[in-house]
Structures are given as structure tokens and as C-alpha cells.
Amino acid sequence: MTLLPPFDLVVRDSELLVTLAGDPIPGGWVAVSGGLVAGTGSVGTEPEAKEVLSARGGLITPGLINAHHHIFQNLTRSYAPALGGGLFQWLTTLYPLWSRLDEEAAYVSAWIGLAELALGGCTTTSDHLYVHPCAGLIDAEISAAREVGLRFHPTRGSMSLSQEDGGLPPKSVVQTDDEILADSERLIAKYHDPAPGAMCRIALGPCSPFSVTPRLMSESASLAERRNVRLHTHLAEDRDETKFCLQTFGRSPVEHFDDLGWNEGNAWVAHCIFPTEDEMERLGLGKTAVAHCPSSNMLIGGSATPVTQLTAHGVVIGLGCDGSASTDHASLWLEARTALLLCRLRGGPTAMNAWDALRIATTGSAACLGRSGELGELRAGAPADLVVWPVDGIAFAGAHTDLVEAWLRCGPVRARHTVVNGRVVVRQGELNMPGLEDMLGRHARISREWQGVLAR
Question: Which homologous superfamily does the CATH classification assign to the domain defined by 7-62+376-431?
Fold first, then answer.
């Protein structure tokens, strides 16, 4: 059916519209109706609309998509005792604090984290909540996502292999395989929406080889196939992980992942820093996608995803913020810029440009979440998820020849407007909803209690 004006919303007068579904349009506009893109066009052809949003002095792009995150960790950002070691030391220092997570903490941290992502131009995010000391934590996150208005892909994360059983996490933060599988079934039945344009989809996310049993991995893969949901985990993130897998399972992390039925086109993984050449080829053939998380990996592990090599083997790359206690921010713009710089540092000036980084943060991440051809593009019939980025003022003085390069090389930049499913979530750089100060107060109370820090 052809949609006719007046539309619900028109975003117009941009310096440049980048749809990623066709050529960029100078002065372009986007029309929105019923939460979908109704059309795009060039200056002078703007249709009528009930609401007009100005993009003057701005760049319009599809909304950024976050393919890997641990939002609850914003309650322990830059936690000083965990700052000096590698991944395993960092985790074992923070596990006791995270064991205090309850429904209020999950809801408040998710509300703050999702709001931060929206302010940074993110319109869809996954989240990997793998600490479950009590029930209802994913439910609390979904409630927050509905209030903030982001498109949400929570993964039912889990840990079932405690220190007593040869794993890394303490008993206080693990569950049994059967508890995890039962709750996974419950969440899929209650919240997973397979329809086009869905605002919430569930994935299954056993955390890592050193924190879950092989049985949980294999049965999660079977459950995901039966219920047609996606799988997510950490993979080949750290050299200590490789040592653990070789000593415990007699095989590398990627071999373990493959042997348990995960490399079959239904999974995306975070990091994948240390695969061998043969393992990269194996992942490419299995159509496993990778969420690249450059800041966190450089801060904790001193290395990063081999993007160029993985891409050469047919592995699709998306972008993730990763944990709010390792990256310590939730700006996908900053992650995209870091990915650009890191790839050029490692591979030379032709290894990546800003357009490549934008595609990784949009269509690449959409593929990670199983939404290729639906999210990450602005074309008629696609969900109306878009961002207006300022490309004017002092930071952009002199930048005229390529506004996408300018967007990522100049700055720093936050969203002027963020639109999700046709709804204006961020307007003029501010959240378009009440409650922020109250949430910040609740967040400060919880995080200070966890860390034993008195209010000043």
C-alpha cells in the first residue's frame, strides 16, 4: 500500500542523507508513517507532515546498532580495585559486587544505560546479562527498554560452571543448567517477537567457555534451533581463555564452540581476538558473525578483533560497546571512531574508512542480530530508526568534502535527534522523556552501596 502525506514525521533540511540503501542525498529528507520509513527524497520535494524535525547543519544516518553490551555493569564503572589486571583478575574482582544485582538494580541500570545509548545515536541494542542472583532481571530490563523506547535484543545470559566445579565465577553468581534452560524457555514465550519491525527479541547467551558447562552450550543451541532464536556468547577473547579450554576440554575455544553445535549460522560472538587462520575460515564457513568491541579489549586485554582478516574469510563484523565497567561509556560513535583508528593502525590507511565503520555499526550489527535487510538502512518500508548528527560549529569548521568522514574524524559527536520506530527519543540533544534526575539519584544510591562509597 502506498502511504500518502501528511505523514507522521518528516526529518528534513539535512546537509546530507545517508540511507545505506542507495546513493547519499544532499539536502535529503526522510518521511515516517506508522513507525516505518514512508520515503526519502532530495531538497525541494519535502512532503507535508504532522511533525517536522529540522536536520539543518546535520547529517542523517540510520540508527547505530549495538551488538554487544553488559548494561548492568554501569553500576561499577571504573571500579578502582579492578583496573590493574587482565580479564580474569578483572572478573574475579567484580563478581562479588555483581552478586548484589536485584530487580531494582537491573531496571535502573538498564534505564540509564539505554538512555546513554540513545543520546549517542543508538536505536537498537543487544544486552548480555549473565549474572542472575535472583529472578526477574531480564524482565526488569525489558520494562526499562519499553519506557526509554529503544529497540531491544536482550540475551538470556548465564553462568553455570562455578569455581567449585572448575570454572571462574563463584557459586553466588551461577545457576544450574536446568534453571537457565527453563528461564530461557519462559522469556522466549513471554517476550520474543519474530515479526518484522519487532521491538523486542530474545537470544540465548551462555557467557563463556570458562563459566558454563558443555551441556548448557549444546542444549542452548538445540533450544535456539527449536524456538528459532539466535545464540550469543564470548569467544576467543583472552589468552587465559585459550589455556583454560585446552586444559579443561582438550581443544581451543573455537573448536569447543564448533563441536557443541554453535557454528551453524545462528550465532554471533563477542570479541574473537585470538582465532587462528584456520579457525577464521571455519567461522566464515559457519556464518558466525562477530561483534567488535575495540575500547574494552584494548583496556583489559591489550589486543582487538582482527577485523580485516576475519572479513577476508567471510565473517560479518558488527560493533559493540561491551561492558560498562570495562569500556566505561556507552557511545557507539566513540566505538566506531576507535574501530576506524585501530584498523588503520594495524592495517594501514586503506584498511578502513569512516563509511566502512558506519556500515559495521549499522548493517554489520544488524546481521549479528539476525536482522539483515530490515535494520540499518533507511528505505521505504524499513523501521524508522534514524539519527541526526550535528556536523556544524567549531569542530567541523573546514570539513566540507565528505561529511561521513567528517562525522567520524571530527567531533566528538552526540546525537542531535534520535528517532526509534518513528518516535523521537532524543530531541535537540536531550532525552525526550521525564525521569532522568530521579533515575540518576537511584543509580547513585545503588552503585555507592555496592562499592561502599559514601555520598558527598
Answer: Urease, subunit C, domain 1 (2.30.40.10)
